[in-house]
Amino acid sequence: MDVPRPKEDGPSRPETEPARIRERLGARSIVLIGMMGAGKSSVGRRLAAQLDLPFVDADTEIETAAGMTIPEIFDRHGEAEFRDGERKVIRRLLESGPQVLATGGGAWMAPETREAVAENGISVWLRAEVEVLLKRVRRRQDRPLLQGPDPEGTLRRLADIRGPVYAMADRIVESRDASHEVVVRDVLAQVADVLDEEDRRKTEG
């Protein structure tokens, strides 16, 4: 996928200003996808604050709906039942109005979720190298897929499997060792680019 890179310097143009992006989004949401540790929640909160939109973490909503943590859901009911609930929760959230939505690492793998996002939002993949992801998640105990004897190997396998599907997102932003504010700026630029492209298609059509 050919992904336009946002400019690093210089003043932002009016169409990339947060208030203008919020207006142009209408009822749609910005949906952040990517691997565990990509920074979806940290970036999402800051992005939502700039856009004056609610921030919603899909995993938190799933835990609230189930009345238990995600590791507990995996232990008691298995991954298949978790994924089924995840699809339903994300669709419900997307139908509830504009927001910045951070999704779990495996959510985007479901075709139904990709369709729901396409209907109700703009998707952005926060892409990060496995080494960066591992550094961010290795001390956390709330990642059931990484609780085996080889978390690095598991993370690499997941990244290899999910990467081509993540690449179906509307845009890609590198989640690197930079400040969250820099990544937020990049996301805003990419969302503005999607909106510009839609406007061009309308004009040409």
Automatic annotation (TrEMBL):
Annotated pathway: Metabolic intermediate biosynthesis; chorismate biosynthesis; chorismate from D-erythrose 4-phosphate and phosphoenolpyruvate: step 5/7
Domain of life assignment? Bacteria
One of this protein's GO BP terms?
Answer: aromatic amino acid family biosynthetic process
This enzyme's EC code(s): 2.7.1.71
**Which Gene Ontology molecular-function terms are recorded?**
ATP binding; magnesium ion binding; shikimate kinase activity
Give the main EC class. transferase
Q: Which Pfam families match?
A: SKI
Needed co-factor(s): Mg(2+)
**By its UniProt entry, which SUPFAM superfamilies does this protein fall under?**
P-loop containing nucleoside triphosphate hydrolases
Q: Cofactor note from UniProt? A: Binds 1 Mg(2+) ion per subunit.
Gene Ontology CC entries for this record: cytosol
Oligomer and partners = Monomer.
HAMAP family in the record: Shikimate_kinase
State what protein this is by name.
Answer: Shikimate kinase
Organism of provenance: Lutibaculum baratangense AMV1
In the UniProt record, what gene is named as encoding this protein? aroK
